[in-house]
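Lab notebook, bench 4. Still working through the backlog of constructs that have no structural model yet. Next entry is a single chain of 477 residues. Request: give me the structure tokens for it.
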Amino acid sequence: MWKKISKSIANLLCLKSNRLRHRNQVLSETVHDANLDVQRVSSHVCLEDSRPCMCNHSIKNLESVENGIAIEHSVEANGSFAHAVINMIGMLLGLGQLSTPYALERGGWASAFMLIGLGIICAFTSYLLGKCLEMNPKSRSFRDIGQHAFGTKGRVLAVTLLCMEIFTALLSYTISLHDNLIKVLSGMQINVPWAKLSSSQLLTLIAVLIALPSLWLRKLSSLSYLSSAGIFLSLLMFTSVPLTAIFGDVTPNHKIPVLQLHNIPAISGLYIFSYAGHIVFPDLYKGMKDPSKFTKVSIVSFTIVTTLYTTLAFLGAKLFGPEVSPQITLSMPPHLVVTKIALWATVLTPMTKYALELAPLAIQLDHKLPDSMSSKSKMIIRGGVCSFIVITILVLALSVPYFEYVLSLTGSLVSVAICVILPCAFYTKICWGQISKPLIVLNLSLITFGFLLGIVGTISSSKLLLQSLRRRGHHSA
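Model written out:
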């Protein structure tokens, strides 16, 4: 039993490494010649120190086309159905779990139909990505599918969305770090006369500085430990709410409004963000021993995740009512041990993410620097550049400390494109002459729905964010 569990965890961690490898592969298009990029990523490694991945995989050869040149790649494909389900669930669980209770309370219990409906749509678009990969075995990534569908423009669009995903994810994690750190260390006062920063801002700065050494790791394969820590902390956060209902003094007796239509545009971004993960699903597909089961994997995984999100949303909204925070951990009774554990998990999670999210850039810097440069010099340059990026994100996070609006804006601006619009567009373009008219109508309808949802959500969340910034400016004045 334990052997099976440990094997599942090992496969999940390996897929997290594959996600970093995929991001590295996509970003490399902007800084490298395509042939060098193919040569570098053709052999599979767990991150960058050229060690073979220790997952049990068989090897099969596929061809990939870069600039019209056919090149063979070795691709691992021995993942079982159960492992694929665990991997997909692990990809989908993240920051979204913190905000679903807030979104449900603001939108009303009827908005749960939107949460469930978006889960069904995203499961369908995951299926479409699998069909795109089935139509063209040469495609190995989200970028490849985009290039197959729309050429260079499709590839550039995938790269752009990936960069936006990395930046906004780190921004959201840093805001979450700031908000939860205040609760964890409530009452602690730090005063630095020459620094015009509040105690909470100084505490966040210290926490980020503690995380910075992870950006200077020489062997990026060490990031697998950070990945495992992040997964464990996410599970802790998820289980904290039901444990609060069981062991706490909080009774789930608050009444949830039926529907608050005026809040739907803003919370739609929070809902769609919870299902963001499609950009790495091709890696999961290619890692399966039997890719024909990918559709079943999508159905099972999204059913489980949608059920968990919906349950957590109703439980959190019933427990805390109108006082529920955009991050559920901030609403939990501070005296409970489970609350302290959840808060620390929420604080430590962002600190494990900086090196993981910036690993693609770090790898690119290493490959771009001259071979004659010493490894120590490369480490200094890589660490310095990544540290500058993190400090920049920290400054922005402290300037815009509105978790719910930033997360909603990310969902409406980035996630809806990754989860809904592009998979439908890619599939329709690639398979135009081979699919029925009803399916074409369905895909075009989903593309239209995605655009409308993205536009309305982006406008609404941007307006709320600007209003909050104005109010903050007036108070500070």
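Notes after review: The longest helix spans residues 437-476. DSSP finds 16 helices and two strands in the chain. Flag for follow-up if needed.
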